[in-house]
Amino acid sequence: MLHLDETIAAIASAPGGAAEGIVRLSGPDVLRCVEQVFQPQGMDWRRLAAITWPTAVAGAIRLDDVHGLLPAELYLWPAGRSYTGGPVAELHTIGSPPLLEAVVRQCCRAGARLAEPGEFTLRAFLAGRIDLTQAEAVLGVIDSTDADDLDVALAQLAGGLAKPLDRRRDALLDLLGHLEAGVDFADEDLPLITPDELQGQLAAAIETAEALAQQILCRHRSGEATHVVLTGWPNVSKSSLFNALVRRAGALVSHEPGTTRDYLTAEIDMDGVRVQLIDTAGVETDVAGSDADVRRQAQEAAARETRHTRVRVFCLDATRPMTDAERSELTGPMSGERLVVLTKVDAAGPGERPPGAIATSSVTGEGIELLRRRIGEAVLASGTSGGAVAATAARCHESLGAAVDSLRRASRIVESRAGEELVAVEIRLALDELGQVAGRVYTDDVLDRIFTRFCIGK
Amino acid sequence: MPSPREFDILVVGAGHAGVEAALAAARLGAATALVTSRLDTIARMSCNPAIGGVAKGQIVREIDALGGAMGRAIDRTGIQFRMLNRRKGPAMHGPRAQADKLAYHEEVRRICQEQPGLTLREETVEDLLIEPATPGGRPHVTGVRTADGVVYRARAIVLATGTFMQGVLHYGPTQTPGGRVGEAATAGVSDALRRLGLRTARFKTGTPPRLDGRTIDYAKTQLHPGDDVPEPFSFLTDRLDCEQIPCYITYTNAAVHELILANLDRAPMYSGQIQSTGPRYCPSIETKVVRFADKDRHQLFIEPEGRATHEVYLNGLSTSLPPDVQDAMVRLIPGLERAAILRYGYAIEYDFVPPEQLKPSLETKPVAGLYLAGQINGTTGYEEAAGQGLLAGTNAALALRGDEPLVLGRDEAYLGVMVDDLVTRGVDEPYRMFTSRAEYRLRLRQDNADRRLTPIGDRLGLVEPVRREKLQRKERQIAETMALLERTHAGQASLAKLLRRPETPWSDLVGRLPELAAVPEEVARQVTYDVKYAGYLARQDIDIARQHRLADRRIPDGFDFTGLAHMRMEAREKLARIRPTNLAQASRISGITPADVAVLMVHLARSETA
Q1: For residue B104, which of B386, B378, B350 has the smallest C-alpha distance?
Q2: ipTM value
Q3: pTM passes above 0.80
Q4: Is there a single domain that holds both residue B184 and residue B103?
Q5: pLDDT tens-digit map of A323-333
Q6: A chain contacts of residue B539, beta-carbon cutoff 8 Å
Q7: Cβ within 8 Å of A, B 248-307
Q8: For chain A, how long is the longest CA-to-CA vector?
């Protein structure tokens, strides 16, 4: 479990040799640890212990197993003035990895422990110094594998997402206030907000949320389209689903050469994310019959695609009960992202529905839009780009999408004059989603997210 | 035979809070005494002669669903009934009634006198008797001492003293001590509370002048009648047959506003004489004129105070300007040119106890067995007071039985929202209920208060058997009707599906399936609302479930918030002051961020595994 009252230490400079190296410590025993490795010049520890402002002091590193002193500077931040909220120290010295490791080891002997990845950032978040997107962005910087990722991470760190969102949230809160006043002060002749004003505000909020969602996606357009494969047993209506998804996207469908039972592919734009959508032959374990060879070939091709794929869409026929094979497929191990889809819900009665399954019908179009969005999010989350950045992007995109949905519903309710209280419900839901993006609103999964992301709690 | 001055529970103050507290405690079997300075003023309406309104009406229905007296009393003594917000959705409907003030008081006194286990006493309480804390415990109340030096013993005390603690009345520059016009204030109790370590602060509220109805020219005003088919407040009342009396509407004008502005230096709120905070939403006329300077008129309601009196209440003209200004002001208003003022409006300042010093049971944190309810907790309104009274009396009695307190959730009742707001967020102005305070208001409707709360009341023993039986019958009919709608199809869709469409009224279904005509109206209404709101309710369920998961993470009694490592100092101080009982409550404290809750959760998880 996480121990916030422990003092943590880590090398904070880039790995490999460099002109300058940094060891960072945070926690209540920072001074006691630093005393063991550092000698200040012209300043005594009593005065350093009493600082109320960030302070820098020159001096030297003194290591138990190294003869002689190495020039260094100590930067000290008292509690309440630091990045993590608690006392923080940084030792800046020569950027030699063995030397820096020795400094950390000696700090640890004095009571510190090695920091977990991202732990300083976690402390900063918990101390209220940075919001959730910023915390995640720091992880993105740590994780980033290429320059694009780094750009996204740095933009988030600067509050790129949180600021426009906060402004929009404030505007929506005002709107809600007006709406509520009309409801609560029924007998007073208050100047009420007109439906037109309401629609104008809602449209502006939708625009902001969509623009931000788009911005996230643009940053994530990578060169290669991610493979998304529809899988499932034969006759679960995969091809109709494929067609429904593709038709919406207006792409060309091509039969792969070779066999009629091979797979179909189409490259489409799935809610701003480029995706190679693949319709495989049905999964079937017991291959028999006259065209067994053809089928086997087709299934080998399907298995190949499935292995290489990042996102799998597992289709279940809603008009019949799940088979044991499907059940074991659902509970079995898997790699990458998987979405579960129920097909033919237009023709289905009530029955067992796996939790989280997306109900669709290629006949009525039900669930197709939702599935498109989920695929887009799954692609983002599948780690097409650097892990933390992609995960943050997927999370924010999901919340923004849900907010837009609520605002659209609000707008339709205003149009149908069904009642301000229903408009208010939708605005509240939208506010909640927007708040979750920047961690302004508390949800219990925020913590789960933090703890998994920060490798803590293992 | 026990001593005549020894009880299980003593309720001090017999206003709307005290009455419900005493009745609830007695219903739960506690030997209860209701002590008031004047038995002639039990459940007196010190301000407007009305019960209910938007959000307040929902509270009255909830009180009734838990067996309280307010709904029954107003049904028997109301003189005009209106369902407010009828043009809005069902969750916004709020019943409101004009009361015959005197009849209301007499009806509530009758209910109190007939309640087994409840004793009425006319005494002025001056001090609280306390048994000092045992090591590791809290001091405990043991009784009260009256102004005459008489001692009453009790195992628990509910204080419901309203505006009487250190009350001061303002008529322009003139100040007189008093708890209400014509009645003395009390001084000792708030001293006693402070001695016990409770903080007190001051609020202000006000009333408008009362006029002689015979001097009003109603031809110059608008008629404001009651509903053609009045709806009762109590789930036990089947229908209302009384003859209704209309109200009237008139308006202020530029001349009135000029007069007020010219005399602002004599208005205690503006001269600096009153420093306390008054309510923002039912402000005095002088505040309205200053704050909404661009409005050229303000609406006034002329409301009768009873059947047998000519006294009328001028709702909307609350003021503490001196009497000569009130006389001149009233005469500038259409219809009131020759109106005679019977009682002048005044402002009253009083002590209240900032309610974050209470537990969710309404027991004070520092003193065991001491409960507070009503305006003493910084609220305003008869309904808010009565609701707290019912809960405080219930919890005092439950504690004596050794049972868990009744703490209603924000998704269960307006009463739950109110208590949670009070103890978690405190108040910075007199607290009044609004529907917008209730995030789950679509399910907290006035029409379903019985379905939400009567089963809870029944489990505790708070409600009469007749309520349970009535509700069970209704629930059975609702279920049968729902099943019928599900299995009857009109073309492709079931009738239930048809009803879900906003444009389909219940009468459409009756056209398609004539046997539905036999469904009682209140059953049809429940089915219709449930079906129409179903989608929204389901979406809110996700949030409710999330809040419940957070609420399940309990914070143990005596948890050391001040020693939380790595938490912002401000957050630590807040948590230590409010002492939330679970993480959901902690997350609702203003100024507590998600990050603070995260830290708290980390510490809790650790103390659980340790």
Answers
A1: B386
A2: 0.82
A3: no
A4: yes
A5: 888 888 787 76
A6: 425, 429
A7: 281, 299, 301
A8: 92
